[in-house]
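Q: Could you fold this chain for me?
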Amino acid sequence: MAQKVYIVEGRRFRTREDYARAMHDKKIIDEIRSSVNLKNRAALEKLEEQLKGGKYRFYTLLGEDFRDEIRELLGKGAQGRTTPVRGKAASQGKTFSARGKTEAPPEKASSVKTKNSFSKAEMDSYVLAELKRQEKRRKLIIAACSIVAAGCLGYFGVYAWHSYRTDNTYQALSALKEKPVVQQYPSASQSGPQFTLDEAREPREVLEEYKNLLNKNKKLIGWVKIDDTNIDYPVMQTVDNEYYLNHNLNQEYDKNGSIFMDKDCDVLKPSTNFIIYGHHMKNGQMFGGLDRYASKEYYEKHPYIQFDTIYDKGTWEVMYVFRSRVYSEEEIVFKYYQFIDANSEQEFDSNMREMAAMSLYDTGVTASYGDQLLTLSTCDYQEKNGRFVVVAKKIAKE
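A: Sure. Below is the predicted structure, expressed as structure tokens.
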């Protein structure tokens, strides 16, 4: 097995003890660099005297490297020439090299080594302290990672629970459509007009299969389904478009929200366009799979949408698929979410041209003034406030 090598400041050290000594030297050098202006000659000269006087104690070659660096900084002005040393320095046998470094005579080298000597007990104490610091850091990192992991597990646990509850809730609601009516929903003549957004209209009888669901929540307005997909949900409607962003049919808080119709649409009138919203959930719930219509091949396998109001059943054929976004009020641009009623053939045709121009592909399906439209809308994360939209027209009643 290859011996482990430690590297500090480009120097290689083969043992943990040598590495600890090197880290000690590096710490001292870093402190000197942060406290001394190495661009100031007077400060450099003072530092050199302190290094010579033994103020700083180094245990590895990092110390010698730092001393050489200081000498080079002091000798930059004398590069390229040898400067004789006069006076006391000359009598002691010192010379300056071409790089300006002061070189001690051979007999002084041993004194430098003696100055940097240290006891085994001191070194063992330092190594032990360094190992304790490393162990403390390791434990802190493990503790932090454990907290993050626990938080992630908790989040995914809550997310999984919400998904499980949502699946069970809608499976039970779907089954409720098939059961006999437990409590007879009041007839239209007894209860008066239901779910109209403007003036009173002729009473309508609720379809038998939705009476049980309507007993659970009077805000039910219909049911949307696309064969061979997970889209098979009740559709809610209230005067507040925000409420069903985070509530289910049972009036419980649910971050999956519910599928709901725009508050300005009217199933009794009816509006030209029914706009239905749903979250784009990453687990595929709600309208999480609606953006698969970006593929024409997917559309060709799923060209029809089943959408029933609580009064009428209907089949809708997909016409347009496009991406858009929520615009500011000041922006003058086609806003699909504002197209609910067409007051004239000209206005209807204009909206059709806008959607056809935005469509990702040509389905060959068109609509004429007087046709009933259905728009499914969900979030699209390709841009800020993005939306993914599927538009269909009603083609048949069952």
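A (continued): Residues 82 and 97 are 6 Å apart (CA to CA).
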